[in-house]
Amino acid sequence: MIFLLAQTPAPIVPSAPATPVPFFLVPTVEQLSSWLGNLGVLLIVAFFVNASISIVLRPLLRRLDKEIALITLNVSQKPLLIVLLLFGLKTSFQIWPSTVILTWVERGLTALMVVVGSYWIAQIFTQVIAYYLKKVAQQSEAMWDDVLVPLLENTVPLIVYLLGTLLFLQSFGIDLSGLWVAIGGVTFVLGFALQDILSNFFSGLVLLIDTPFQFGDIIKLEDGTIAMIQKVGIRMTNLFIIDTHCELFVPNGVLQGQNIVNLTRPASHYYYSISIPLRGDTVPARAMKIIREVVLAHPDTLGNIDEKLEVLNAYYNFTDEPEFREHQSAKTELAFQRLLAEKDVNDHLIKIQKSLLALVDKIQFIEKDGLDADEARNIQVYYLELAKITGLEVARERQGKQRVSGLKEPAVLENTLIGSVRTWYQAWANDPNLTEEDPYYLQEEWERKIGLLKLRMNNLFQKIATLNIDERKLDDYLIKLVEWLNQNFKTTQYLGQDPKIWANSFAGGGDSVITNVEYTVKFFVDNIKLEQCQRGNRVKSEVQGELMRQLRKIYLYR
Fold first, then answer.
1. 363-372: b (≥16 Cβ within 10 Å) or e
2. Is the peptide bond before 266 cis (omega within 30 degrees of 0)?
3. CATH fold group of domain 205-262
4. pTM (2 d.p.)
5. Spatial separation of the C-alpha atoms in residues 248 and 237, rounded to whole Å
6. Residue extents of the structural domains in the chain
7. Which long-range contacts (CB under 8 A, 24 or more apart) does 154-157 make?
8. Tens digit of pLDDT for each residue in 409-433?
């Protein structure tokens, strides 16, 4: 009997039918009144948040030295208020009875928050993070970050908007599992169909990691085309062809497989050569002297500054062309100012480099037994005197609860390297041949170098200011700074950049008499990136014309 009772199935209780969700219900007066009250509170909160940002937070952030916080606030103010209003509005509907229409309204509000949030995140990255990364890249000597930041600036917003689109669809209850499977299949198929595009994309990454150039560099392609790097994109690199003044879009895979000559590395000086046919009875020393002086007398060629100052007024004076004479007279006067300013820069650099090398010898002498506290302080005093010549002095600033020492520019920069560099490039910016954008380019180029100089001087100061410094490596740090000053900041030695002249070929007549001698002169133009990259062609033309004029005067030119 017990066994039979155990086997008796339990009675089946029928489940209550699910109550269908109504399509629409009119809210009661109490619900509507409560909702309007919540909506009023939401509007008041939004008003006070907006007022607090505009009246209190923005003036406080303007007092900060770095503008990144203020930029973030400007980008975030409107999206933040919109998201706050949408979220508050969605929350306020919870007191209403559940209906189909209300469900879709809540999903719509969620979708709108996704849209605004995606836009907000994309703008934060583009206008704040990418902007800050560009600033960091400008202070870095590496070239890869100059390519990486624009690449991220183009790709990250696309990824954000793609994810935002998927979340937008999911907000309306759309099942995306099938979509992910479809995307996987399409990706597999497109992987074969878009091999070239993927190849160009990864070639762009290779150019990014091992980049032979940075934006604004002048390069020569395998076919001899000279172009300026405008932009490295996800699939293509944008080049500006200098000769034809047009843009060229080269697939990254094609560019990555070429032998590229960077004409602006390590410096923006460029070699030009001119062939000059002279009479066979020309005295070589006389001809070479005139050729050398004509090249050095041009304000825009490189050479020993003292020699250039001596011959600057000796040539390029056309008495029969008043308009050109007026232009040349102004250019010569401004060239004097520029060369004197550059000479002052070189004098400061030579003095600083000699002082650094003297400090290296001093450290190498006393480091054998290790540096004690007094010796370390003496090195600090010596280095601070050197920093003063550079244009930096010790300043203390608060970082959180601590006060940190560092090297900063003083209010007055007279008789310093940084001050002389600024005087030099400002004098250079007055060159009448420069285009409208060239002064801004010169300022940007040299202020970037000044920023790197201050960064290196500060890093070395932190090593020297710490008493437990690794004195065994301190001399190496100083030697590296000297090398950087000479190679990456500005060279003071023009021996390798003076004009080079030699006899190239001979032509003879009867009885083995030499009737013609061809001389070749090679010289550097100071900066080929100026004048829309046409400076070198203009200088070469002017030098060649003056050579012909001067050599014809003495009946040497054939």
1. beebeeeebe
2. yes
3. SH3 type barrels. (2.30.30)
4. 0.68
5. 8
6. 29-174, 205-262, 270-337+496-553, 340-482
7. 154/233, 154/234, 155/234, 156/122, 156/125, 157/122, 157/125, 157/126
8. 888 888 999 999 999 999 999 999 9
